[in-house]
Design a protein that fits this description.
The complex is a heterodimer of chains A (116) and B (112). Chain A is mainly β and 116 residues long. Chain A has no helices and eleven strands. In chain A, the strands form two sheets. In chain A, strands 2, 4, 5, 6, 9, 10 and 11 form a seven-stranded mixed beta sheet that branches. Chain B has 112 residues and is an all-beta fold. Chain B has a single domain, classed as Immunoglobulins (Immunoglobulin-like, Sandwich). Helices cover 0% and strands 55% of the residues of chain B. Chain B is built from no helices and eleven strands. In chain B, the strands form two sheets. In chain B, strands 2, 4, 5, 9, 10 and 11 form a six-stranded mixed beta sheet that branches. A five-stranded antiparallel beta sheet of chain B has the order 1-3-8-7-6, with no helix packed on it. Classes of the chains: A mainly beta (116), B mainly beta (112). At the A-B interface, strand 4, strand 5 and strand 10 of A face strand 4, strand 5, strand 9 and strand 10 of B.
């Protein structure tokens, strides 16, 4: 079946502009996650959705970052007034409710954001 | 501060050699996962371990979860060039099942 898809794959924007990043999770997966990965680094948790609600927004770096999920499916991560330090790969993952609390996550290919 | 510390950060070996990657923490995890990531792609799940002391084998890869569920290791036997990639460990903290805490990763390069 289809995996997690993300769009765009690459985005170059000027400092101060707003950007929207989209994630289409695997059909039927109730949980959706956003992470950020800087060059050569591990993944930094941003936000997690269960259905359309976000029980954990603790990783959002500032109030310039927001995310929503509609219909229990597609999610959009919005970054307002982008800064150069926002440049990174933004990864989305989805997860079925796993057995025994494993909650395995399936990742999309990411959106590479470059702020000039 | 990284909740999960991975070592080494970088490993370069010849085809046929063995290697071990370590993942350590002072926190207890309800489960721990290992992923491999290749350039331009998202991480791909290799294995999940949930029981202290658990050992899982996936062909030439052996994964171990520490007895106290605070650490894990990944051992590759007779490495092949196709094993090249960034290996990431990630754990679910016991009181926050939705969030995975990732280590910084170990870049493994296997040369023919």
């Amino acid at each position: 079946g289809a995996g997690v898809s993300q769009s765009p794959s690459n985005k170059v924007t000027e400092k101060g502009k707003d950007v929207e990043l989209r994630c289409d999770p695997i059909s039927g997966h109730t949980a959706l996650y956003w992470y950020r990965q800087s060059l050569g680094q591990g993944l930094e948790f941003l936000i997690y959705f269960q259905g359309n609600s976000a029980p954990d927004k603790s990783g959002l770096p500032s109030d310039r970052f927001s995310a929503e999920r509609t219909g229990g499916s597609v999610s959009t991560l919005t970054i307002q007034r982008t800064q150069q330090e926002d440049s990174a790969v933004y990864l989305c993952a989805s997860s079925p409710k796993g057995l025994a609390g494993t909650y395995e996550q399936y990742f999309g290919p990411g959106t590479r954001l470059t702020v000039t | 501060t990284q909740l999960l510390e991975q070592s080494p950060q970088f490993l370069s070996i010849q085809e046929g050699e063995n290697l071990t990657v370590y993942c350590n923490s002072s926190s207890v995890f309800s489960s721990l996962q290992w992923y491999r990531q290749e350039p331009g792609e998202g991480p791909v799940l290799l294995v999940t371990v949930v029981t202290g002391g658990e050992v899982k084998k996936l062909k030439r890869l052996t994964f171990q979860f520490g007895d106290a569920r605070k650490d894990s290791s990944l051992h590759i036997t007779a490495a092949q060039p196709g094993d090249t990639g960034l290996y990431l460990c990630a754990g679910h903290v016991t009181d926050s099942w939705g969030k995975l805490q990732f280590g910084a990763g170990t870049q493994v390069v296997v040369t023919p």
